[in-house]
From TrEMBL:
Subcellular location field: Cell membrane
Predominant location category: membrane
The entry's keywords: Cell membrane, Membrane, Transmembrane, Transmembrane helix, Transport
Transmembrane segments: 37-57, 63-85, 92-111, 117-137, 149-167, 187-205, 210-230, 260-284, 338-355, 362-382, 394-423, 435-451
Name of this chain's protein: NCS2 family permease
Topology relative to the membrane: Multi-pass membrane protein
Family named by the database record: Belongs to the nucleobase:cation symporter-2 (NCS2) (TC 2.A.40) family. Azg-like subfamily.
Top-rank taxon: Bacteria
Entries under Pfam families matching the protein: Xan_ur_permease (PF00860)
InterPro entries: Azg-like, Azg-like_bact_archaea, NCS2
Length: 452
């Protein structure tokens, strides 16, 4: 009798609650509706910085900030909802850090593509991703690319993103004598440094939403600092809310991206997105035991399909490729185990579709601390590289160091692949080079010849 009363009083006892429990198998996964919703909130707080940071990066490529913000919110809502309802995994999908840097600083500003053509490259990388997910060829690709290079690419992108953050803040500036040097200690630089240290302290103290709190704090500091110290106006009020800006929707140049010279860019996007997704699924499945009966990540094929779908529709919406977020671990740590977490995250993104004037208040120096710390998080795999083996360490080192120094993710990957193939070839270890690596090296040479 006592059990019946308790069940009737619980949220799951309502018809809607029972349906949700059955669909997501909440109790079977050892969770509850309350836990799943709270886990969704935790992941959202850990990752909502992307709502501001992604448009800030894409606006450097020429996409209007408000249009990029609308696209960011839309793709995050749609793809996270699909991850929750179709793949039923507690994973956020949103425009990825690294992919937006590749889009803006390598394709548009580096190689000179228009942002419309660059979106076309995003679209075709998503199509290829969908093909790979559909035919389940992930194992062959995983075995072809050495683990050291996969780790190195993540680390290199992290250093590149950190460099961008420091540059955007004016902390690092150009110098004729030394190429780069420390910037002048003006109002902007001091504000950035205070924001960076405050954000780092919140990260160390494990504050939920530390990065977005850091962005908010730095923005608040920017308003008085610019006026009290010099005459620099860093924050200007333009309103609270407005209708979404869909001016970038369907501006993608799909056919313009189909040039031989752009194939390496498409491949690099595909490679980065594919391995980021796979690595994220594997890491989360290990940390939260999200595995099937065979010990593989749960619903992996469906999850990869959602990721591919997100990459394809991101381009027509007007943003760089969406991908799984490792910040999903925040919700998993809170006990989230089902797709209800992802559905909660999706719904939390939606109101921000109407807040572009408010979010446009955020100056570049306010997003810079988040970029620096994202770079820190992405450096974690460096410990997994076998630095004692030179044949593995050198290509990894080259990939890591060249990304920030050449200001190009693509060049770092290209020279990493080329050096790996050449070292194996001339040291009598040709059997270690899989077909996919030969293709990667050939595409790297093609890219270097056509763009440099």
């Amino acid at each position: 009798m006592e059990q019946t009363t308790t069940a009737a009083a619980s949220p799951a006892a309502a018809p809607g609650g029972r349906w949700i429990e059955r669909y997501f198998r909440v109790r079977d996964r050892g969770s509850s509706l309350r836990t799943e919703v709270l886990a969704g909130i935790a992941t959202f707080l850990a990752s909502m910085y992307i709502i501001v940071v992604n448009p800030a990066i894409l606006s450097d490529a020429g996409i209007p900030f408000s249009a990029a913000l609308s696209a960011t919110v839309l793709i995050s809502f749609m793809s996270s909802l699909a991850m929750g309802l179709y793949a039923r995994n507690p994973i956020l999908v949103a425009p990825g850090m690294g992919m937006n840097a590749l889009f803006t600083y390598t394709l548009v500003l580096g190689a000179g593509l228009s942002w419309e053509v660059a979106l076309g490259c995003v679209f075709w990388s998503g199509v290829l991703f969908a093909v790979l997910a559909m035919f389940n060829v992930r194992q062959a690709i995983i075995e072809a690319i050495p683990a050291s290079l996969r780790y190195a690419i993540t680390c290199g992108i992290g250093l590149f993103i950190t460099f961008i953050g420091l540059k955007n803040a004016g902390f690092i500036v150009g110098s004729e004598a030394t190429l780069v040097t420390l910037g002048n200690f003006d109002a902007s630089l001091v504000t950035f440094f205070i924001g960076l240290m405050a954000t780092a302290i919140m990260v160390v103290l494990r504050f939920n939403g530390a990065l977005i709190l850091g962005i908010a704090l730095t923005t608040l500091l920017s308003a008085p600092m610019g006026r009290l110290w010099g005459e620099e106006v860093m924050v200007e009020w333009s309103g609270l809310a407005a209708w979404p800006d869909f001016s970038a929707v369907m501006q993608v140049d799909i056919w313009g991206a189909l040039k031989v010279a752009y194939l390496p860019f498409i491949f690099v996007m595909l490679f980065t997105n594919f391995f980021d997704a796979l690595s994220c699924f594997m890491a989360l499945s290990e940390s939260a035991d999200l595995k099937d009966k065979d010990g593989n990540p749960r619903n992996l094929k469906r999850s990869m399909t959602v990721d591919a779908f997100a990459s394809m529709i991101a381009a027509p919406l007007g943003t760089s490729a969406a991908q799984t977020f490792i910040e999903s671990g925040a919700g998993v740590a809170q006990g989230g185990r089902t797709g209800l977490v992802a559905v909660t995250i999706a719904l939390l993104f939606l109101p921000f579709l109407f807040l572009s004037p408010l979010l446009s208040l955020v100056p570049g120096i306010a997003t810079a601390p988040a970029l620096v710390l994202v770079g820190l998080f992405m450096l974690a795999p460096v410990a997994k590289i076998d630095w004692a083996r030179a044949e593995e360490a050198f290509p990894a080192f080259l990939a890591i160091i060249l990304m920030p120094l050449t200001y190009s993710i693509t060049l770092g990957i290209a020279f990493g692949f080329l050096s790996f193939v050449l070292i194996k070839l001339f040291t009598g270890r040709m059997e270690a080079i899989r077909p996919a690596m030969w293709v990667s090296a050939a595409l790297s040479v093609l890219m270097l010849v056509t763009t440099h």
